[in-house]
């Protein structure tokens, strides 16, 4: 192929602009990205060579070499991995295939500082080279192709790039960065070693650099040892040395790894700049043996809601990377977990498809799911807000000395839950086997706590004598939930109600009818039955009121027959005249509204209007000349009170105005 000039895909050009303009504050990550690409390329070769050992050619020892040339002002990262064909170079270095990229671009705000953080999390990969280089040359040959089928790719990182065919005997890829003047500090052995140590120590591949030795300068007066010398300098010796530990961190015993190393490793594999909330590192023994190192991040990534994104957990077999297939290693609702699983039992030379079917992989998935849940349970156990509050009041419990480790975990579960709670709830529908454990991990706000900290077990422990259900309400916001008319009688009787405001709550609760033997009951569904919580006198009074109200009720039903399934007298209201509820088996109005907003069809079910026979407005109905208008206002207001809109808002306004004048 003669030299060709091609344009970058629009997104790449945009990304390149961002990279060169926003990332200067954290320049050095470019080396981590390029070394990680080199290491991926070696992993890919090792994997392909399992079925075709000829791909190793005469270089079976995979490695990455980092070299610099002070005079030419270049820095090169060379690997003998899988390499790229011409077509691959054009596709991989000229377009972005990753599906999440468009979403990612949409998230960028134009604020350089914020965007730089986001880009760091996303990992700009190869293009990060342009942070320090104003031109990049890539020379490559794919394993298995002839020497004459090498490729050279060159770009100045603006609109286009050049590709041409070259002769290249060495397999793999060499990325040559022509450094900007502002990046000359990377033309230094010590500097490069320290950046490699910081980010790439745990890469399981050796990273080599040419050794340097101190050479004294020449004598100024040859023959006169004491006459002084020219300044000395470091000179390359031609010998290469490994500059990283090249030991896969997860293969070391726990006691040999420091917290800092665990944190650094997390940052390397996750692109996250923050430390993780917690991690677990274990050797699992039994019918399937494997090592797991699993991390829970502190912050949700920007694409948490993309259920198809690449998983954060990688599967290795004896330190050879095999796959990072999301669903095979962990259920989707745990997609925020990052880490490594390394098995010594799995066969290396089988297809990914077969691996996904394998019993061992299933056992690993189950084991890892359980491990993540126990990490979360441990954090939840140590959340201890109450204890913290007690100490703040000066009432500390001397018998309960908390050790430093436990103390460090305080508040972490709340932090986790604020970031990932909604995702965890997906598990109620997805992971039947662990539903009970998941239910214990749920947290909600309630009528006694604004913070999202009430677990179902806490709620149960506080239930009133005679209370037979766990009561909850769903709404768009905490304020709407808290002020909902349906809560009135519960407030009056001092019964706690859970306030649920996550979009997934309603859906998730479809899968959780009971908690520890106690049913969960929406206060907006079905007729209210407080059972033993209501005394005989109250029941009798309610019956009498309903009886006396019967004639008005019949008229109301008739007036509202197109809007309401039924109209009945209720005891759930104290201050409000009316509220809407759905039949026991019906879809809540909140869920129906959400589905309609999302453009989905919902069954046409009419709600039940419940009226408070004791309320002045309801009493006014009897004999009123405005009966019809009042009836409709009552209904529409009940709809408004729960965040809905009257079917015909203009008519509603007209009716209210007619009564006001
Ligand atoms: N040293 C290399 N050897 C072989 N192929 C490479 C090399 N560097 C990059 N590539 C190819 O270019 C593609 C794009 O690289 P880039 O770093 O932009 O993204 P990525 O590695 O796929 O994603 P990320 O860095 O976010 O994990 C890679 O997927 C790979 O196919």
UniProtKB/TrEMBL annotation:
Q: Which residues form the Histidine kinase/HSP90-like ATPase domain?
A: 26-183
Q: Does the keyword Cytoplasm apply?
A: yes
Q: Residue ranges of region A?
A: 1-352
Described purpose of this protein according to its UniProt entry: Molecular chaperone. Has ATPase activity.
Its recorded name reads Chaperone protein HtpG
Region: C; residue ranges are 594-661
Subunit-level organization: Homodimer.
Annotated localization: Cytoplasm
What CDD domains does UniProt report for this protein, alphabetically?
HATPase_Hsp90-like (cd16927)
Task: State a single Pfam family of this protein.
Answer: HSP90
């Amino acid at each position: 192929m003669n030299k060709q000039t091609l344009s970058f895909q629009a997104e790449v050009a945009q990304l390149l602009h961002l990279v060169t303009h926003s990332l200067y504050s954290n320049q050095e990550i470019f080396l981590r990205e390029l070394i990680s690409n080199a290491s991926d390329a070696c992993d890919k070769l090792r994997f392909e060579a399992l079925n075709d050992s000829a791909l190793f050619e005469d270089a079976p020892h995979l490695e990455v070499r980092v070299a610099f040339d002070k005079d030419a002002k270049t820095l090169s990262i060379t690997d003998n991995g899988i390499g790229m064909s011409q077509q691959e170079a054009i596709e991989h270095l000229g377009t972005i295939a990753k599906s999440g990229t468009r979403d990612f671009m949409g998230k960028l705000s134009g604020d350089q500082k914020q965007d730089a953080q986001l880009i760091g999390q996303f990992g700009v990969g190869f293009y990060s080279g342009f942070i320090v280089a104003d031109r990049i040359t890539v020379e490559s040959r794919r394993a298995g192709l002839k020497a004459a089928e090498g490729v050279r790719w060159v770009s100045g990182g603006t609109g286009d790039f050049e590709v041409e065919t070259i002769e290249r005997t060495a397999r793999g890829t060499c990325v040559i960065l022509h450094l900007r003047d502002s990046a000359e500090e990377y033309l230094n052995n010590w500097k490069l070693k320290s950046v490699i140590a910081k980010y790439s120590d745990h890469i399981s591949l050796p990273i080599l650099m040419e050794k340097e030795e101190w050479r004294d300068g020449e004598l100024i007066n040859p023959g006169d040892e004491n006459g002084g010398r020219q300044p000395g300098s470091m000179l390359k010796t031609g010998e290469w040395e490994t500059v990283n530990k090249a030991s896969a961190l997860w293969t070391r015993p726990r006691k040999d790894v420091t917290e800092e190393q665990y944190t650094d490793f997390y940052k390397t594999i996750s692109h996250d700049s923050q430390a993780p909330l917690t991690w677990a590192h274990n050797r699992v023994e039994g019918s399937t043996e494997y090592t797991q190192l699993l991390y829970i991040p502190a912050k949700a990534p920007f694409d948490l809601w993309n259920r198809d994104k690449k998983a954060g957990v990688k599967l290795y077999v004896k330190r050879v990377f095999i796959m990072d297939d999301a669903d095979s290693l962990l259920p989707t609702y745990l997609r925020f977990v990052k880490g490594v699983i390394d098995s010594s039992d799995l066969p290396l030379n089988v297809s990914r498809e077969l691996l996904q079917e394998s019993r061992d992989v299933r056992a690993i998935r189950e084991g890892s799911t359980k491990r993540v849940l126990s990490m979360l349970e441990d954090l939840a156990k140590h959340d201890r807000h109450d204890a913290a509050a007690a100490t703040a009041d000066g009432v500390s419990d001397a018998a309960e000395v908390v050790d430093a480790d436990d103390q460090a975990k305080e508040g972490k579960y709340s932090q986790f839950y604020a970031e990932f709670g909604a995702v965890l709830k997906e598990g109620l529908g997805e992971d039947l086997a662990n539903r009970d454990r998941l239910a214990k991990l749920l947290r909600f706000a309630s009528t006694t706590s604004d913070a999202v900290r009430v677990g179902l077990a806490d709620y149960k422990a506080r239930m009133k004598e005679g209370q037979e259900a766990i009561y909850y309400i769903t709404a768009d916001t905490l304020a709407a939930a808290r002020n909902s008319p349906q809560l009135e009688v519960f407030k009056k009787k001092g019964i706690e109600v859970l306030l649920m405001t996550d979009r997934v709550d309603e859906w998730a609760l479809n899968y959780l009818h009971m908690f520890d033997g106690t049913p969960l009951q929406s206060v907006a569904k079905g007729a209210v039955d407080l059972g033993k919580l209501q005394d005989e006198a109250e029941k009798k009074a309610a019956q009498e009121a309903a009886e006396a109200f019967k004639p008005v009720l019949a008229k109301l039903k008739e007036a509202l027959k197109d809007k309401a399934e039924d109209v009945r007298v209720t005891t759930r209201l104290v201050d409000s005249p009316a509220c809407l509820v759905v039949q026991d088996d019906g879809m809540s109005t909140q869920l129906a509204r959400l589905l309609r907003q999302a453009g989905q069809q919902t069954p046409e079910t009419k709600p039940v209007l419940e009226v408070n026979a004791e309320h002045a407005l309801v009493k006014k109905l009897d004999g009123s000349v405005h009966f019809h208008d009042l009836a409709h206002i009552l209904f529409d207001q009940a709809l408004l009170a729960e965040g809905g809109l009257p079917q015909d808002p203009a008519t509603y306004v007209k009716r209210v105005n007619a009564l006001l004048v």
